[in-house]
Sequence to fold (151 residues):
Amino acid sequence: MSTPFPPPSPSAAAPKRRIWPWALGGCLILLLLAGGALVAIGWFGVKALGSATKDVLAGVPAVSENFGPLQDAGFDWGAMGQATAKGEHVMIYAITGEKGRGSLRIDLDPATQAFRSATLTLPDGQVRELDSATIDRLKALSEGRLPPPAN
Fold:
């Protein structure tokens, strides 16, 4: 008589794969990519705003006369924060041109946010009040309209 084959030996059970470390790692990578994308979008937005601000201010004759071709222009967040803490409603721009650095301060009506007055601080420290025609030109440029002709 022939002897039957011995029963197969029990094979070792395949180890269970742990999927949670891979899922957690994938979620972390997606979160980092989304954060990087938000930072990039914010950076490009700030650069675009700065470029638009520079273009608007370059269109104001008083600015181009006193600063020359503009190299940089943008909100002066520190000065605006200090003014807001005092209860003032203003927009303050830091301006850098070939002739030096200065600022443009625009006082706003608290109720309507309309431009009330504007002062330009020149590179030599002088402060000049801008006339109503220049204020109208600034307002038109900031709203994306064609400004009234400069006198």
